[in-house]
Amino acid sequence: MKPVLALLLLLALAAVAGACAPAAPRAVEITIHYSHYSMGEIDVPAGVPITFTIRNDDPIDHEWMIGDLAMHQLHRAGTEAVHASRPDELTIPALSTRTTTLTFPVAMTLQYMCHLPGHEVYGMVGVLVAK
Amino acid sequence: MRRSVVLVLGVMLSMLILAGPAFACGGLIGPNGAVNLLRTTTFVGYHDGVEHYVTAFQFAGGGGKFGSLTPLPGVPSNVEKGGSWTLQRLIRETQPIKAFAIPAPAQRDSASGRVEVLLETKIDALDITVLRGGGAAVGEWATAHGFRLPADAPEVLDFYAERSPIFLAAAFDADAAAARGQNIGDGTPVHITIPTANPWVPLRILALGKQANDPVTADVYLLTDRKPAILPLARGANGLTLAYDRTASALLLDDLRSDAGMGWVPATGWLSQLRIDANASTMTYDLAIDAQGHSPSRVAAGLEAPGSFDPTPVAITMLAAAMAAIILVAIRERRRTVLA
Fold first, then answer.
1. What is the DSSP pairing of strand A97-103 with strand B65-72?
2. Chain B 100-129, CB below 8 Å of chain A: which residues?
3. DSSP, res B252
4. Which residues in chain B have their CB less than 8 angstroms from residue A57's CB?
5. How far is CA B181 from the centre of its chain?
6. CA-CA distance, A124 to A82, in Å (whole number)?
7. Separation CA B301–CA B304 (nearest Å)
8. Least confident span in A33-42, A79-88, B6-15, B167-176
9. CA triplet B135, B137, B140: central angle to 5 degrees?
10. Between chain A and chain B, how many beta carbons pairs sit less than 8 Å apart?
11. Could you report the predicted ipTM of this complex, rounded to two decimals?
């Protein structure tokens, strides 16, 4: 086999292997300061795992709850003190950091917010767009 | 008419302490609706370089606990139970009772090690702690001690800590108050003695935890040796009105002096009453006072950030002298040039 042909074959194999491997998680870092998220809008690719790191710089607890309008409406009237069992519902204690990984299977638009009393009204709201 | 009005914990921030399980997910602050913060009345007297800050909690009924944090201009030398009638007497002085008026009914990843507890005391059903620390550290201390801080607390605590890192935390146990036999409407006056160069009254903190259109109402009585200068100016449109401003009567001063802990009241003085009637969104300032009547600090008033140019009377005098000297030198040089 000629060297050029061999090289082309190798490159093609590498491309196929790369396409079949799971996509590496994308990272998004959000800081909470003075009861506001550092990012009001986040664009992420659909179908790819996204790792969110949320750092709370405030001396009070906050939440990062992401979902559709129905989910948020449910939480507005909820009474759970702490959210720790679901990757899309995080409680971030004062002066601490929490990480979660989510995959948005299709294109969609969601909201994230803090449902602690008064925090949503104060401006702890953001939008995530998966494309 | 507001007679035995009131006296909630004075110029302070009203935060609720957990009375039960934490409420996430949009639960209401103030479970049971136990605490009603009514119009705040505060007395600030300044004499011989010492600020006397008198305010009171009103027991509004219900159960559970609530509390407040008060930023202070300096480290208090004493915190004690206030006199029995000082606040009521001031209200009467400025709003005399009309002859035929019908009385109205009385209405974790911890960083908290940086907080220094300077003083702890108990006054009736109040547990009082004086703290020194940055906004985050004080906030974390407060959270760890059961205070439920609202969303704007981190920014507001930093705002005050940058000006004076001294806070007074008062936790009020309504159940304990009820057990003590306190009735609805009863107040617990607290007298804080603070050596400081000029008195200063935190007002912005009255809006803590409120929505933008929520009303903020308060009365601040100010007794100084002479007519003071204040900032911001009481324009009315900014929510601040100078409702009373005249020499304090000898009778008033005698009455005040005869109350417990009020022996410091001088023989003469100037009484001002400032009424705050504002929306929370406009309550972005504090009350800075120059007891000598010159120029109050814009930083203390919250109109400028610490570190920005904030001319004191001495600085203004020096600046004026320097400018006068420059002008004189310039005139002199010009004369020399003309003569030559």
1. unpaired
2. 108-111
3. H
4. 136
5. 28
6. 17
7. 8
8. B6-15
9. 105
10. 100
11. 0.77
